[in-house]
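Worked problem 6 (solution included).
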Amino acid sequence: MKEIRCPDCGYRMTNSQCPICFKRVPFPSAATKNRQKAEPKWERRAIPSFPKAGSRRRSGSVLKTIPVLLAAICAIFSLTGEVIEQVSMPEDYVSTYYEDYLEAGAAGAEDMPTMEACTIYDDKGIRVTVDSIGLVYDTPALAVTIFNNSERNVTVSVDSAQVSGYMIDVSGLYCEVKKGKTAQTLLRLNEDDLQNAGIDTVADVVLLLDIYDTDDYEDIVSELQIPLQTSAAGYVQKVDDSGTVVYEDGGVRLLFRSAEVDEYGDGKLLFFAENLTEDPVYIGDDGISVNGMETDGMLWCRLWPGTRCIETVYLFDVTEQGIEESGDITQICIELYVENAVNWERTEKTAVIDMG
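Solution. The predicted structure is:
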């Protein structure tokens, strides 16, 4: 896979999540796309235990540092002989990670909607709970606990989420839990995605949960939709679908918003994408050129049925092509494709955006 640079810290990335600052730049690897095509899955199942929207509460409490938290939990589980093991991240980083987590209603997170604790999966000896919602610095996050009472080592992950109808990148929840162990972690919602979509109130969240056997990769549950609600449930998110139409057909739209060059000499294109069909779709490119020259950038987004997103395309080192500032971008050409993720029907189009 070709390396790209993290748009936040500049680290050379070899996968979709930066190991330094955890910025996600989603793009499909050949292996991932081949596996998806070989085993298309899209489960629409209801979860029996939803959190109910409640009145606003101010707990005034802040989660303690992870050593104190683990000590308390270990004391509880000592009666059953279980040992709590945090395996999702190095211990020294997790300590800071939890220390900076503020539950909704605590100092610094007073305006954050609350969420009642609930179980989002409980089967085959594995239980996953969402304990609360809060902030990690200024990023909304969910506190998650995984109880593995099965006879196998499992990996629990969420790599996609929907907030108020917008697809939002997530990070943090990719957790390997050994049999008989319990792990805790935080699932963070991408702050840039929320800001680009204009979401300042997290009212409802839908997670796409995956659980598989760590040793043989056998699926335990795949792409299970988990709907959640906060105390702001019922809030109607305003949709801004402004922009220049690049593609529109059969309920799928892609609109161009803006192009700019940042202080580091990298370009950034902003798009609005929408999928009003009943199937998930992929929107991507087979090549992007700026001012007639091919550039190092990638458009790729996955849209669940009835969702939309604000997609950012980063163009690296455009100054090497003589583009010094935003006004130097005169034309953008995208070899665009739209692919149905159920039947794999694919539509291709060459989209030309003139900036003059």
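Discussion: Residues 27-96 have pLDDT under 50 and may be disordered.
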